[in-house]
Each structure stands twice: as structure tokens, then as C-alpha cells.
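Hi C.,

You asked whether I'd gotten around to modeling the 456-residue construct. I have! Everything is below, sequence then structure, no commentary in between.
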Amino acid sequence: MLVSHTRIVDIVGDIIRIRAGAGAGKSEGQPCLGDLARVTSDNGFASLAQVIGIDGEMVSLQVNFGTKGLPNNAEVRFLGEAMQVTFSGSILGRVFDGAGVPIDRGPDLSHDPAIPIGGPSANPMKRVLASRMIRTDVPMIDVFNCLVESQKIPIFSVSGEPYNPFLARIGIQADADVVVFGGLGLIFDDYAFFRKQFEDAGVFPRTVMFVNQASDPVVERLLVPDMALAVAEKFAVEEGKRVLVLLTDMTAFADALKEVSIAMERVPANRGYPGDLYSQLARRYEKACDFRGSGSVTILSVTTMPGNDVTHPVPDNTGYITEGQFYLHSGVLDPFGSLSRLKQHVIGKVTREDHGQIMNTMIRFYSGAREAEQKQSMAFELSDYDLQLLRFGTLFRERFMNIEVSMSLETALDLCWQTLAECFRPEQLLMKQDLIDRYFPHQNGEADQAKVEAVG
């Protein structure tokens, strides 16, 4: 039996507190954490709410549609179940809001099955070691910091950088069966951009979108990652799909946590964020998993750094949870700030034998090119080798660091060899001789080297 309560004690922001009484159990309407409730009033107000705190008889709920126009004599009726999201084959190619309601004017899905959100992460006994690569056709990822199935990795960036177009490109080009997109606090233009990109590229039929726009209630921002990950896990476990989850921007998610925490008068931690920020982020990121005998869930998120401060609580905590990061600044992926801690599981094992050597050699020479550029800027005398490094640095940025560049891994590896041949002699590479004999384009290399020496 559903019991109604009308004893609202206070309303703070989108949080209401009611005196629910000390019922004997759920059958008599006593709520549990995470339970849903329906809030209605005589003036036409109607919204779902979720239990986020219980202190004796006092129950705190966050109201999905906000509390504007909500009278203090409204009726609160607990539904006795947690938040659920629709899951069936019909959700592919659909767009949902932060409450899981379709917003694309498509067919009604109210009769489709629903699954609970926010469950525990996968049993460690069901996990297998990451060993498969997700190809993105982005050379700065595929060559230098491979994206591996079941990996959880953020894109660290700042406002004004093209992280959303870059995330959309990865979603379009990634070698995945299903893409689940979660937008957090997006302006309408960004939402429309993602949808148009997925539609124009022909990947929308294998994409599910959950979008909380900037004009939507803040509390729904907390539900989007849970809904996206619940759907992704279901596709992976029950249908054996390789699922890529895209989330932008997790800093907006953390800010929503802070807003709710302040409304509930909890003791703040660093910079006002709740003390359980690490746990809240880890609870979502740990959903990434390669399931034994089934599919996988890979999480690629965006984390903006206020003031480009990597010690800000959100990127700082994220860095301890995730398995590396892609550092996007000045419109390029920084090869020194980016790191994939799982790349060693696939480089040279599921990729070409020269992958590891070429990756290390290219980064070594680019580091030398940066030093040569500093010498040049300070008007130091440059050696012939410095001139070779300067030419290499220019080619490296043009051919690989530009995030608009798209090519397969094998094409990128061949281009790496070609770039080395245009700038250096074989004996300068300090690589395994059998790899040089097999892949170094000697004839072109000698001709290009003669040109470099002539210019020098």
C-alpha cells in the first residue's frame, strides 16, 4: 500500500525534507535510500523525487523538476522502488532527458522493460584482464596512447577547447558495437551538435543518448551517468556488445553533487565539494569492465579543469581513479601530458611488431625537437642535428598532433617511418636493426636526407 505524506518541513533549492514517521517497514510507506516518490499538489505541480537522506523520521528528497511553485502542503507518495531506465532494443537511435523520458518525439516506450540504475560494479570474478584495443583512427591515441577495452579514461581540458567535437569524432570512428552518450549540463547547441554529428555519420542507429541540458533541473545531472552506465552494462552482459560510454562533462556532475551537498547542509571538503567526491566518481568509473565470456564497457569522459588547474578536486580525484588521461590543450593532444596505463596490454601483442619501438622513437625525437626549438628561440647556434630535429617537430605536429587527422593505425605507423626517413639516417634512430631493415623506406630516406643536409 502506498502511503501519502504532507508534512513538508522545509524546502531548500531542489531539496525538500518531510517528516515521514517511523513506519514498521516499506509496506507501510517507510522509504529507503534511492527510492522514488511522486510529489503532487492541488495547484498542478507534479514531479518525481528521489530519497537522498534519512535521519530518523526526517527524509530528504531531491525533486527532479525543481521546487519552483511547490507549496509546503504538497503530497509526497513513496513508490517503494528505485529509479529505473528503459532498456530494450528499441532504445537504440533514441534520445532521453535526465529523467529517462524520450525527448525525440519517437514512439512511446512506456511499455518496454525497465532496469534499475546505480547498482554495484561488476563482480571481480567476472572481470578479465584488458587485452583488446579500441581503434579510434586518431593517431595520437592509436599510436601513442591506445584506448583499451574496459578502460576508464578522461579527457582533461579547459573551457574553449574543442573537446566536444573531439569526443564526437571518437564516438563516430571508434571500433565499438554500441555508443552510449551522456551529456551533463549541455547547452542546446552542444546537444544539437552531437546529435547531428552522429546522424550525419550514420552511427545514430547504434547510439543511445541521455542528455541533461543546462536549462534542465540540476538534480537530473546526477542521474545521467547512472542511466548511461546501466544501459551500457546491460548491452555488454546480456547481448555481448562492445560498448563505448561517452560522458561530458564530469566536472558539471561534480558541481551538481556540491550543490546538493550544500543544500543538505553537509560539512564541505576541499573547495566546497562533498567529502565523498572520490567515492561518487569511482562508483561510476568502476563500471568499466571486460566481462568474462561476454562484452565490455569502456568509459571515455571529459573533465574540464577550472583555471587549467590539474590540482582542482575534480581532475585530481579523477586521476587517482582512472587509468591515465588524454590532455587536450591548444587544440592538440599533448603527447607528454597524455597517458594510457593499459596500452602495454595491446602494443606489440594485438598491434604490429614495430608499434612499441616506433612509439618510443617518435616521442624521443619530438622531445629533442622541443629542446631544439627552445635553443632557437634563445638565439643559440644550432647544429645540423638540431635542424633535423626542428624539421621533425614541424612534421610531427602537422601529421599527427592535429586532432582533425584521421587514419588507420597501420597507415599511421607507416607514416611514422616515412617521417623518420625524411629527417634522419637509419643509424640515428637507435632502433632494432631488423625493424629498420623491414620498415625503413631507405631510398626515399636517402633522397630526403640529402635535401635536409643541403638546406642545412
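If it helps when you're writing up: The CA atoms of residues 237 and 294 lie 6 Å apart.

Thanks,
B.
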